[in-house]
Amino acid sequence: MTYDVIIIGGSYAGMSAAFPLLRARRRVLIVDGGKRRNRFASHSHGFLTQDGVAPDVIAAQAGVQLAAYPTLTWLEGNAMDANRRDDGFTVTLEDGRDFSSRRLILAHGITDNLPEISGLQERWGQSVFHCPYCHGYELNQGKIGVIGVAPMSMHQALMLPDWGQVTFLPNGTFEPDAAALAQLDARGTALETTRIAEVTGKADVRLVDGRLLSFDGLFVASIVSPSSPIAERLGCAFDDLPNGRQIVTDDMQHTGVRHVFACGDAARAAGSVPLAVGDGTMAGTACHKSLMFD
Ligand code: FAD
Ligand code: MG
Question: Is the pTM of this model over 0.85?
């Protein structure tokens, strides 16, 4: 049987995309690997009615509500490939099964790549963050370290003073010039140019000269990559930004590859749960419009 739509990725964006389609009684297959980007965090912030709720609780509630629609099929697993066939697509799962559909929605998200600093990855989402709006408030105006990965880290070093007393640690990734030093000074950000040996304790930084700097939280820019190569294989265009690549879409979340839509973090910079939900809703309605009219 041919589904109307296969949605690759069943997190906030993918589930939101499914709603308008299911409510129009279209046959939808969601394939989901279950690795939401925020699975490292114990609480999610800033989404209406769900502020402070655990990310997996939000996803589980949504899953229960979606499951009430009889035209939904949900498969756990990863899509490995997608190919255009006749007037639609064939999606191949990692277990080798093939499924076909008339439309495709890519909602597979992105993967965060952190710099290789001992102790950093295991604190990601607990005391090491990238988004001040998501996790800055809980630091209670305390001590914050911003770890540099590239010149773009200046952006975090200049933002975070709204959330606490900030020390910027470029960690040898670049030398702030006179203009950058003046900007840091104007925001009250301290500079520590000694390289980092490790992150330890809750959010403490051991420098290579042996000094230990204690922080309430650390921020670092992650370099992101698409969680699946399928968009590239289908010929979707990408925006290459300093912190990674995103699928290009129009305002209706259409990728420019006929009948392929994309939404959520895979298709926007600086994503969040509410933005993924909004983009997903647009992708689902635009996809339904294309099923009716083209
Ligand atoms: P994701 O939630 O990343 O989901 C993508 C889904 O697609 C996953 O289930 C994955 O397994 C699946 N998938 C990937 N590839 C395949 C494939 N080939 N086949 C099948 N399935 C696949 N945002 C907030 O609004 N508030 C917060 O407090 C917040 N905190 C965060 C904390 C951390 C540590 C991080 C890293 C992010 C945080 N975010 C927060 C951002 C938020 O996690 C993302 O914006 C959001 O998860 C994007 O939703 P999405 O549906 O686009 O992608
Ligand atoms: Mg977009």
Answer: yes
